[in-house]
Write a structure and sequence with these properties.
With about 90 residues, this protein is of the alpha+beta class. It has helices at about 10-20, 30-35, 40-50, 75-94; strands at about 25-30, 55-65, 65-75. The protein contains 4 helices and 3 strands. This is DNA-binding transcriptional regulator, MarR family.
Length: about 90
Amino acid sequence: MFNDLDPLLHSQLRLAVMSLLISVESAEFTFLKEKTKSTAGNLSVQLDKLSEAGYIQIVKSFRGKKPLTTCSITKKGIKAFEDYVNNLKQYINK
């Protein structure tokens, strides 16, 4: 019997963001945009979805006069990511 894959993490861009955030303390929006090769608009929408689910925390501030958005993964997000990976392994190993 297979466990369901988290539909929120089954999106390529959201999974890419979570994969990046799992290995760093935090990441700036521009870093995530560059690494995922996504548009600012699409990335912003996907980050909002992850934030609403409690998987990431978004902090908006300023660096000088420029807006700065920083993201970090939450404990809930770490568990969701680990569960997703473990569930995916069940599919691969069967």
